[in-house]
Amino acid sequence: MKPFEVRNAHFDRLVNTPGLRWMGQNTNHATPHPAVLAAMEKCIRDEEFHIYAPPAGLEELRHGIVADLGLPGQAALLSDGAVASLYHVCHTLLEPGDEFITTDPTWNWPMAFARSVGATVTQIPIYGEEHGYRLAPERLAAAITPKTKVVYLVDPNNPLGSACTAAEIDGIVAATRQAGAYLIHDCTYRHFAYDHTLAATRYPERTITIYSFSKWLGFAGLRVGAVVAHPDIVEKLAGAPPNNLGSNILSQRAALAGLTIKDEWFPGVLAQQRANQKLIKDASDRIPGLAMPVYPSNGNFIVLECERAGVKPEALVAAYQEHDIMIRQGAYHTPTFGDRFVKISTSVPTAWVEEFVDLLPRLVEQARGRNEAVKLF
To answer: Signal peptide position in this chain (predicted)?
Structure first.
């Protein structure tokens, strides 16, 4: 079998595992608000799926996304999820010979998109106490070259959960503006942050904000997101989008309902996932060698370091798989630092987290010293 077939078969097994506890993909498993379910049911009953949605998205939803971000004067272009937004932006703005700068770790797929059009990728390491698990603006400025076309910032960072301060955003914007480059500010997890500053408030003319409904609203499988940018940039992106017949209308109706009830529903989701983080922190603190380097996390996930406990991330992932709990090995995010940690999603039912922490002491002992040959993705 080709590698893509093996990879797909792996995820097909996960999807078809009854009762699997999804704690590795940052998905949100909170019970949806009744208004969101009602919007989807109405869309199906009215058989709206026979028609194409507007090419840039439902107008009310486009304006609702811009309002949720608080970016008046910017425009939204709906997409089939944030990763589709990133694919389209990279394929539209980058050319062979351009440079794409990001951090290590980062969200991997945009690097693949950049390379696929002939751009080079530069990563700035941010993992470790020496870097504070964050990007210092002066390190970005030092890395920028005359070929730099795009700076890609995942903020809050996936997988670390660190978030840029307002001063750091100011510095990152200054370095990017001086280079005349675009700044892609991937804000997939901003709704979970304790504090968050949008780069577009400082650099509206060349910041491209990536918006997602997958995480805060729990719509990972519905695939709806958006690019938000200056209208001139959106005009360029709207010229040849991959979803030029409109994104999924069922997803858009549900997303619109989600924005309507966000202030009522989301605070409870946020409180639960932060409490789940604390459960894991308290449990890991009791096990020698385990450490949570970024706590509290500004995302709906945490990084748990296991290297000093003598545990390989892949071995711990495999041990949890035997209990139908899916967590993720660090190598998925970074080959350089991936042997140090696992990542665990926290926007899940508390019962899942309680099961995870109850198993943790035993599975750490079980995984210690083991080299797993199991193929993970």
So the answer is: none
Question: Is 374 domain-assigned?
Answer: no
DSSP secondary structure, 255-275, as one string: HHHHHHHHHHHHHHHHHHHHH
In this predicted model, what pLDDT tens digit does every residue of 335-349 receive, in sequence order? 999 999 999 999 999
Can you tell me whether residue 99 is helix, strand or coil?
strand
3-class DSSP state for residue 157? coil
Contact 303, 159 (CB under 8 A): yes
- Domain enclosing residue 40, as ranges: 34-261
39's torsion region: left (phi>0), alpha (psi -120 to 50) or beta? alpha
Supply φ then ψ for residue 344, to 5 degrees: -130, 125
Provide the whole-model pTM.
Answer: 0.97
- Residue 377: the pLDDT is 83
| Token pair of 341 as six digits | 């940690």
- The alpha carbon dihedral of 130, 136, 138, 140 has a sign of positive
Segment 221-266, tens digit of pLDDT: 999 999 999 999 999 999 999 999 999 999 999 999 999 999 999 9
Name the DSSP letter for residue 50: G
What is the arrangement of strands in the sheet containing 120-125, beginning at the earlier edge strand? Answer: 75-79, 225-229, 207-212, 182-186, 148-154, 99-104, 120-125
Amino acid at 354: E
Distance of alpha carbon 369 from alpha carbon 357, whole angstroms: 20
If one counts the domains in the chain, the total is 2
What is the full DSSP assignment across 133-155? Answer: TS--HHHHHHH--TTEEEEEEES
* Helix, strand, coil content of the chain in percent (nearest 5): 45, 15, 40
State the chain's mean pLDDT as an integer.
97
Average pLDDT over residues 126-151: 98
> Is residue 43 a part of any domain in this protein?
yes
